[in-house]
Amino acid sequence: WVPELVEDLHQKEATVVEVEVQIVQARAMLRVDEAKVIQAEAAVSRSAATRTKAEVTRTWWASEHKRVASTLKSAASSQGEAEQVDEKFKTSDAAVTEAAASVALAEATLVESKAHRDKAAADIRFAEARLRVAKADRDRAAAILGYARIEAPYDGVVSRRELDTGAYVQPPAGGAASAPPLFEVVQTHLMRIFVDVPEA
Q1: Fewest CB within 10 angstroms: 56, 65, 130, 141, which?
Q2: Other CB atoms closer than 10 Å to residue 81's CB: what's the count?
C-alpha cells in the first residue's frame, strides 16, 4: 500500500480530465470565432455595397452640380436651386468618405476576427498536446503504482507468506539472492507419477 502513489495517480487522472475539458472549451471558442469571421466578411460586403451606392450617388450629384452651374450663367437655373444641388453634392461626397471609413473598419474587424479564429485553432492544438503529455504522465504514474502489486508468474496457491497485505517492501540490500522470499506459491494440479518401488 503506497498512498502517495495512489494520490499521485488520482492527480494525474484529474489533470487529464481538466485538459479534456479545456479542449472542449477551445473547440467551442473556435466555432464562435469562425462565426465572427463570417459576420465580419458579411459586414465588409455590406460596407462595400454602401460605398458603391454612395459613389454612384455622388457621381449623379456631381453631374447635376455641373449642369446647374452651367445653366446658372444663362439664368436657366435659380441661385436657390444651385445652392440646393451644391449641398446635395457635398452631402453625397461626405457619404462616400463615410462609406470608405466604414469599409476600412469592417476590413479591420475581419482581420481581427481571423486572428482570433487562428488563435483558437492554435489553442486547440496546444491543449491536445497538453492532453498527450497529461495522459503519458498518468500512464507513467499508473505503471509505477503497478509495482505495488506482486503477482505470481504462474497459477497456484500461496503456501507461505512472509508479509501482510499493505506492507512496505524495500529491495534487499545485498541483492535478490540474499533476500528471503516474500511468498511461496505451490502448484496443486493433479499429477500422475511413475516410480520404481523395490519389493521390500
Answers
A1: 56
A2: 14
**pLDDT score at 111:** 93
pLDDT digits (tens, 9 = 90+) for 93-114: 898 899 999 999 999 999 999 9
Rounded distance, CA 85 to CA 95, Å?
15
Give the H/E segment covering residue 158.
Answer: strand 157-161
Q: Report, as an integer, the average pLDDT of 152-157.
A: 85
Cα distances from 149 to residues 18, 142, 143, in angstroms, run 28, 11, 11
Residue pointed to by grid coordinates 482570433: 116
Q: Which residue has the cell 451644391?
A: 86
pLDDT-based confidence at residue 176 (cuts at 50, 70, 90): low
Judging by beta carbons within 10 Å of its beta carbon (0-12, 13-18, 19+), is residue 145 exposed, middle or buried?
middle
Q: How far out from the chain centre does Cα 164 lie?
A: 48
Using CA of residue 158, residue 164, residue 165, residue 167, what is the dihedral sign? negative
Helix residue spans in the chain (DSSP H): 3-73, 79-146
**Helix/strand/coil for 140:** helix
CA distances from 148 to 39, 107, 134, 151, 157 (A): 58, 62, 22, 10, 20
Select from 77, 80, 78, 99 the least CA-distant residue to 88: 80
Which set of grid coordinates corresponds to residue 9? 495517480
